[in-house]
Amino acid sequence: MMAGCTTTARPTHTTKPVIPAEYIAMYGAIEGEPFPIGPADLSRVEPRFWRREVGYPTHEPTGTIVVDTQARYLYLVGENGRAMRYGIGVGKAGLEFEGNAVVQYKRQWPRWTPTQDMIAREPERYGPLASGMEPGVMNPLGPRALYLFKDGQDTLYRIHGTTEDWTIGKAVSSGCIRLLNQDIVDLYRRVPNGTRVVVLQGPHVPSAAPQA
Predict the structure, then answer these.
(1) Largest CB tally within 10 Å, which of 52, 133, 193, 210?
(2) In this structure, are residues 146 and 106 in contact, taking their beta carbons and an 8 Å threshold?
(3) In a 10 Å sphere around its CB, with 0-12 CB exposed, 13-18 middle and 19+ buried, how is residue 146 labelled?
(4) Is residue 176 annotated as a catalytic residue, yes or no?
């Protein structure tokens, strides 16, 4: 059963940043999809959470996904101490996943089904959705999802998209890791099935890579 990754908080309003043209293009509408992917509203996302390549020295091998939940970043480890960094929204306290996992499989425009725990906590909200929700713009998983397994078992946690741009950088979901839709589409293209995922809780400082 798919994990539910819905929002339980409300947006806050901040001063709108000046958005460079390169980011307007990066986060523009995506064409050629079975359902619309509109442009991200970057005015509701802190600039530090916009996608960019950064220095990231680490012992983790190239191709590893590292999720730093406290900093609200997801890193895709690259070569030569570099990584692609994405801003994320994370799970509320007590609902987060921690540890190592693998991307067992990926899905474009996935179905979504609330977990039994979600239905038990909020039966009126999630009970009517117990049989699942079809793909589309209203689906909480968005246009892409990566399914995390540990020791061969489904963790029920996903890395997925969201149209709720204001939730990036916040702890609002039912435990999953959410990215802007443009970012999950970008990440989806870069990682294969079997990709290692490390989800960190608490303060974290990247460790220096070993010298050759």
Answers:
(1) 133
(2) yes
(3) buried
(4) yes
Tokens of 23: 């980011």
| pLDDT score, position 14 | 53
Partners of residue 52 on adjacent β-strands: 85
* Region 21-200: CATH code: 2.40.440.10
Coil/strand/helix, residue 51 = coil
Q: What is the pTM of this model?
A: 0.85
Q: What is the pLDDT of residues 49-79, one digit of tens each?
A: 999 999 999 999 999 999 999 999 999 999 9
Catalytic residue among 5, 59, 176, 204: 176
Adjacent-strand bridge partners of 106: 146
CA atoms within 13 A on the CB side of 212: 2
Residue type for position 14: T
- Phi, psi (degrees; rounded to nearest 5) at 117: -65, -40
8 A C-beta contact, residue 184 and residue 139:
no
Annotated active-site residue 160? The verdict is yes
Q: For residue 150, give Cα distances in angstroms to 56, 73, 102.
A: 25, 21, 6
Marked catalytic residue, from 5, 13, 160, 204: 160
Q: Which helix (H) or strand (E) holds 116?
A: helix 116-121
Evaluate if residue 208 carries a pLDDT over 50.
no
Q: Is residue 179 within 8 Å of 140, Cβ to Cβ?
A: no
What residue has token string 């958005």?
A: 19
Residue predicted with more confidence, 120 or 89: 89
Question: Where are the domains positioned within the chain?
Answer: 21-200
CA–CA gap between residue 117 and residue 163 (Å, rounded): 24
